[in-house]
Structures are given as C-alpha cells and as structure tokens.
C-alpha cells in the first residue's frame, strides 16, 4: 500500500509536528508534498496521486479540496486527519470565517473517512456533525514515550522557579487564560510571602488586553520550541484551561520536561492516562476559585511523576499509533476496492 500524505510537516505547529512524526514511521514508499509554493504543491498533487493507493490529508487546508476532487476522478480513497475544528474554534475565538467553515465542511463531506486525533474529539464530531457520523473514527495522536521514560524521576535535576506558572495560548479566548489570570490573582491576594508570576506564550487574540492588564503576567507572544522547552523546565506548574482542546500536545510536552500540569476536562489527551486524580482536572474553566485551589495544591505537591507512571505507554507511542493508522488506511483501501467491485 502506497500512502500519499498531504499536509504541513515543517512549520512546527501542533498538526505539523504530528504529520512529521507519522512521516518518520510510515512505509518507505510513502509520498509527501515537497514544495512550499501553492502552484508547485498543486502540480505535486496532480502528478504524485496516480501512483498512490490511498491519500491522507493531515490538517485543514484549501488544497484539500483540490486533492479530494482529483482523487475522486482517479478513484483513490481519501482520509482526513482532523486535528481541530476550524469552524467551532473560530466561533469561540470570535473570528468567524465563512470561507474557512465552508472549506472544512466540504472537506468532511468529500472525504471517505474522517480521523479525529482523540476519542473525545471523535465523539464531539459525531454529535455536532451527525451527517458525517458514519465515517468518523479516532486516530489518537502518539507521544514520545522515550522522553516520558527519561522523566520518571520528573525534574530531580531541574531547578524550577517556585513562583512561576506557565500557560500557552496567547490571547485566544478558547484557551481561557483570562480565568487563569483571575485564579493567580486570588493566590497572590492571600499569599503571605511568595507572589506568583504567570508566563504566557502564544498568538495574539481578543483576550490580549485583559491578560496584559494583570501586573503579574509576562506575555512573551509567539516563541520558538527551544524557548518553550526552557519555560517548561523553569515553571513550577503548567496550566491548560481550554474550553475546547481536541488533543493537547502542550501538556504532554510539559510532562516530558518534568513539569506538573493542571488540565481542563476538555483536553483530549486525558484518555492517554490510566488514572488521573480530581485535583489534576479543571471541571469549570470559568471558575477562578476552583482553578486557584487546584493550582495551590499542585504547586505544593506536584503530579508529574505520578502522571508519567499512569501514562499508557504501550498503546500511545508513535510507533503504536502509526501501526494503528496504517491499519485504518489499509481497511479504507479494502472498502474502496470492495465497493468498486460491486
């Protein structure tokens, strides 16, 4: 089976990193897009697709529609690996884009299969897009289990800043960082000695002004992966308070760096743990009191070592996930052949 992967694997975004990990492990005869310019990528799609058996589109892009229409003419099965939901996330972030929403819906409609990056996200998609429910299933993201294995003693050789809390998401309303700010303010109001600093990284968004109004916030904006890893190793706690998070690579990266994590119940990656405690999870991402209480507990006790022990390494490595995804693509090819034979 020859796979043709259409999607970004270079820019360092979450979806691009996932695509890159799969490409490292897919069969050697797997094809991918090489060029960066749109016209050249279009030519690649036209010339490379005839020699493949199945197409995997990883992430949202307008070029997916071109690929899907060409695949239909060639009779090639197409799977759409959905890392997020552009339509829903844009609505939450108060930046609705009708063209993007229409492109995403057309991609879902034309795809033979839709693979969601977590089981929770797959369930959500079936509820909100019932017209596509029969072709939605989960292809859960993998994790660098080797890095987690190295951090079993989580941070024993790392000197953390006891007063530093870290979060990623910038001003995007979906990340609910403004409510983390409210929680840190509560902690600082009742703190006798130590005052906490909240370090924020990520793109600009509607909540930037609110977040920036807190004197204890350091908003670094967009930073590179090396800087993010440095912050993971400095922070006493990483908090992800998203109201919608299909997987959540950031908290997994935090754990790889031995950093304790506090996670919203909406984080898809929670399914990778055999067990989590109530104190690890934010139930109400608007409730500053709940967030503050759970942050206070984890700042004293931590949870990185415990969560690493509870991580399902056997089924969640990139090698295991790649085997699962290749199997799903093989099944899709077989279904297409069977349908064509009938």
Main features:
6-stranded parallel beta sheet
Main sheet summary: 6 strands, parallel
Question: What is the first-to-last residue Cα distance?
Answer: 21 Å
* Cα gyration radius (Å): 21 Å
- Give me the count of strands: 12
Share of residues in helices: 40-55%
* Shape assignment: elongated
The proportion of residues in beta strands is: 5-15%
User: What is the mean predicted local confidence, pLDDT?
Assistant: 94
User: What is the strand arrangement across the widest sheet?
Assistant: 2-1-3-4-5-6
Which spans have pLDDT < 50 for at least 5 consecutive residues? Answer: none
Mind explaining what this structure looks like?
Helices cover 46% and strands 14% of the residues. The strands form 2 sheets. A 6-stranded parallel sheet has the order 2-1-3-4-5-6. Strands 9-8-7-10-11-12 form a 6-stranded parallel sheet, sandwiched between helices. The chain starts with a strand and ends with a helix. It is elongated and about 75 Å long. By secondary structure, it is α/β, with parallel strands linked by helices. Strand 3, helix 3 (63-74) and strand 4 (78-82) form a beta-alpha-beta unit. The longest helix has 24 residues, at 318-341. Helix 2 packs parallel to helix 3, helix 3 runs parallel beside helix 5 and helix 8 (177-190) crosses helix 12 (288-301).
SSE inventory with pairings:
Layout: E1 3-6, H1 14-25, E2 31-32, H2 38-48, E3 54-58, H3 63-74, E4 78-82, H4 86-92, H5 98-110, E5 113-116, H6 119-128, E6 136-138, H7 145-150, E7 164-168, H8 177-190, E8 197-201, H9 208-212, E9 217-221, H10 225-234, E10 237-240, H11 249-256, E11 261-264, E12 281-282, H12 288-301, H13 304-310, H14 313-316, H15 318-341
Helix pairs in contact: 2-3, 3-5, 8-12
């Amino acid at each position: 089976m020859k796979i043709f992967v259409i999607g970004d694997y270079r820019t360092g975004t979450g979806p691009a990193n996932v695509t890159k990990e799969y490409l490292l492990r897919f069969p050697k005869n797997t094809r991918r897009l090489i060029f960066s310019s749109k016209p050249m990528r279009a030519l690649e799609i036209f010339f490379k697709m005839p020699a493949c058996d199945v197409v995997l589109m990883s992430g949202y892009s307008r070029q997916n529609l071109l690929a899907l229409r060409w695949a239909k003419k060639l009779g090639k099965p197409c799977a759409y690996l959905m890392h997020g939901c552009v339509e829903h996330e844009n609505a939450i972030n108060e930046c609705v884009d009708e063209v993007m929403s229409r492109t995403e819906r057309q991609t879902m409609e034309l795809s033979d299969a839709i693979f969601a990056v977590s089981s929770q996200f797959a369930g959500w998609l079936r509820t909100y897009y019932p017209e596509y429910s029969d072709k939605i299933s989960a292809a859960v993201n993998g994790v660098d289990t080797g890095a987690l294995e190295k951090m079993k003693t989580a941070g024993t050789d790392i000197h953390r800043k006891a007063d530093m809390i870290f979060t990623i998401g910038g001003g995007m309303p979906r990340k609910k960082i403004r409510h983390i700010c409210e929680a840190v303010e509560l902690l600082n109001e009742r703190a006798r000695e130590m005052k906490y600093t909240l370090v924020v990284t990520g793109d600009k968004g509607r909540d930037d002004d609110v977040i920036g109004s807190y004197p204890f916030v350091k908003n670094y904006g967009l930073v590179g992966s090396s800087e993010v890893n440095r912050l993971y190793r400095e922070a006493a706690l990483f908090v992800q308070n998203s109201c919608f998070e299909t997987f959540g690579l950031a908290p997994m990266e935090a754990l790889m760096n031995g950093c304790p994590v506090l996670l919203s119940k909406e984080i898809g990656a929670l399914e990778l743990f055999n067990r989590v405690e109530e104190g690890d999870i934010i139930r109400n991402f608007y409730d500053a009191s709940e967030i503050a209480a759970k942050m206070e507990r984890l700042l004293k006790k931590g949870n990185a070592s415990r969560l690493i022990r509870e991580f399902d390494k056997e089924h969640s490595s990139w090698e295991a996930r790649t085997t699962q995804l290749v199997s799903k693509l093989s099944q899709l090819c077989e279904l297409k052949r069977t349908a064509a034979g009938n």
